[in-house]
Amino acid sequence: MQTVKVSIDRTFAIGETDPRLFGAFVEHLGRCVYGGLYEPGHPSADAKGFRGDVLELVRELAPTIMRYPGGNFVSGYDWEDGVGPVDKRPRRLDLAWMSKETNAFGTNEFIDWCRAAGIEPMLAVNLGTRDGDAARRLVEYCNFPGDTELSDLRRAHGWPEPHGVKFWCLGNEMDGPWQMETKTAEEYGRKATEAAKMMKWVDPSIELAACGSSGRTMPTFGTWEDTVLEHTFEHVEFISLHTYLNDYAGDTEAFLASPDLMDSFIDEVVALVDAVAARRRSSKRIMLSFDEWNVWYRTRRRSEGRTKLGWPVAPEILEEIYNMKDALAFGGACISLLNHADRVRCACLAQLVNAIAPIMTETGGPAWRQTIFHPFAHFSNFGRGRVLRAQVASPTYAAIYHDPRGTADLAFPLREVPYVKLAAVHDEADRTVTLFVLNRHLDQSAPVEIDMRGFGTLELSEALEMRDDDLSAANTRETPDRVRPHMLDGVRVASGRLSVTLGPASWNVIRLAASA
Fold first, then answer.
1. What's the whole-number average pLDDT of the chain?
2. Which of 47, 235, 437, 497 is the most exposed place for a label (fewest CB within 10 A)?
3. Which DSSP helix (H) or strand (E) runs through 136?
């Protein structure tokens, strides 16, 4: 491959990363909660039933905010079922995942788990089978100090101090026909507006995210965002986006190009929400909450293990096993999020444990890192700071990404995909610059030269590479470290220039100390 030329100037920035950009998601889905982060009786479990081995991996992964309890699950969830004495909580049928919910783990347990993990909680309210009144009651239960029925109920349940939850989601994917009580944009917009009003009357300090369309491929996409924000614009701070990258077509080059469609999706939603602001002559800017994103395809269809018969408790569903190829596409998605830090202020990897997750567990046994764990840990631990506007001149290729929906096969031509995708983050406080670099060429190494201006003297702090000659290589219980980062050799830094040769099909992280 011909040399990739990159230019980075300290003075040209996209924006500062919000701490909430590095979030994740816990849903009552399969073994995400039960047998995942919560397993009383496990050898590592604490007195509250939280698995210590999972908590240790979560701290290493370093998510900053955690969305709960759904997801599809929330559209049929009665929050009152999950509070109070555990032995008196009802067992319910969960129509979202065709399983049985014990409600042994609920809102208060989730808050305690977030505190143990050092993570900000994010709660979603049910705007499917419930309404704004149930939502504002949950805010009162969680956030009001005391001397009301619901705040005193929380205190009676053993949580004397308010939870202080600041970020709330107004339902989930309400245009999806798979959702309990699907809504039209008008129906949802009105319902979300009334819920938002009452929730903020109870606690004016909270921030709210309205549901965007369930995906870029939905027939409702675009008109949904426009209509919903016509109703909710004055009451919300965020609109949500959801994307799952797939390789149904078995086309690796197209799969690795698919994160570039995330870039287009983000740009389109920014245009949609700013158009609503323009019609109102408003200077307010609605920010984006990309609160579901991941690679997901092997277990996505019902015929591929999406549900199990017999209404089981915590069934083994959506337990996607991620390989090296998935980690590369996943890393590309991390770069896309960083390069839109000016408008994507919150994002949640879906999900955290077992169900399409970076962490896998065996019930009663060990926990281990999936391949996608490593790019996210790099993204979260090293992605804090100012994202710089890098100019990348890379050889390109063409691909057609297929995203099947039911009987339809949606094709997205990608005509100029750069083989090298890059994000640069400058942490001014620590005087470090971190480069996240993906080489998408399957066979060729990529020589890269980077001109870095305005940083003073640069010194290499650390360079990591993740690649494998076998793109199907995965981590398992027996081989939990089959795919992991290694030291990247051959990085040369001199006179504000960096040169390195990246291996084919590789995820790379290069950290530099800057004197300025």
1. 97
2. 47
3. helix 132-143
Q: What is the 3-state secondary structure (H, E, C) of 364-425?
A: CCCEEECCCHHHHHHHHHHCCCEEECCEEECCEEEEEEEEEECCEEEEEEEEEEECEEEEEE
Q: Which residues are catalytic?
A: 173, 292
User: For the chain, what's the residue count?
Assistant: 516
For residue 110, the cross-strand partners are: none
Q: Are the CB atoms for 440 and 488 separated by under 8 Å?
A: no
> What amino acid occupies position 188?
Y
* Spatial separation of the C-alpha atoms in residues 345 and 361, rounded to whole Å: 30
The torsion of the CA quartet 171, 176, 178, 183, rounded to 10 degrees, works out to 60
Rg (CA), the chain: 23
Residue labelled with tokens 């609503």: 276
Helices 107-117 and 132-143 pack at an angle, to 10 degrees, of 50
Rounded Cα gap, residues 421 and 210, in angstroms: 31
The pair of three-digit structure tokens given for residue 56, joined into one six-digit string: 């240790």
Distance CA 375, CA 362 (A): 23
How far is Cα 168 from Cα 67, in angstroms, rounded to an integer? Answer: 9
Q: Kindly tell me if the per-residue pLDDT of 424 is higher than 80.
A: yes
Q: What is the pLDDT of residue 410?
A: 87
Question: Please, what is the Cα angle at 172 between 171 and 177, to 5 degrees?
Answer: 120
Residue of 148, 14, 143, 128 lying closest to 76 (CA atoms): 128
pLDDT at position 406 over 70: no
In single-letter form, the type of residue at position 138 comes to L
Amino acid of residue 156: A
To the question of pTM greater than 0.85 for the whole model, the response is: yes
Q: What is the dihedral of CA 372, 376, 379, 382, to 10 degrees?
A: -110
Name which of 426, 293, 418, 296 is nearest 8 in CA terms.
Answer: 426
| Band of pLDDT at residue 303, cut at 50, 70 and 90 | low
Alpha carbons 339 and 143: distance in angstroms, whole number:
34
- pLDDT tens-digit map of 445-476: 999 999 999 999 999 999 999 999 999 999 99
